[in-house]
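Structure ticket #2291
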Amino acid sequence: PESVDLEYAKSYFGEIVKGLEITDAKIDAEYSEGVVTLTLECDDYGIVIGRRGETLDSIQYLLSLAMKKSSNGYVRVAINVGNYREKRTETLKHLAAKNAAYVLKTGRRHTFEPMNPYERRVIHSALQNDRFVETHSEGDEPYRHVVVTLKK
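Resolution: structure written out below.
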């Protein structure tokens, strides 16, 4: 991109947060290696994160469109709210290991609930070096999901 306006990103995100009626929000922004990272600190993260991160994903998408328009180029945007992404990643890795053990023990395949591409990637990555199980995705967006099966 020609330039990245962090104040614009903070302002845009601040308006969304204000619209969600969060009054104690503190927003920080930084730009590094092609990624604008916005960090939100407030008392109630739940409304910003939404069910399984859907609201957070939507806000991130809107902000990336706004940043693309303001900077005349693609800018990746990441929003960190209460370390949600890191916690969700750890939860998904744990679920992947647990369900891989289930598949190995029972010989039956396991189908995860529909997930966004980021979450599916976490599951695939967590099990890619497993000697006994393999993963693949099935279905169409937004119902695409990961399936864990025994290796042949």
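Closing remark: The helical segments are 6-19, 46-49, 54-71, 84-106, 117-127.
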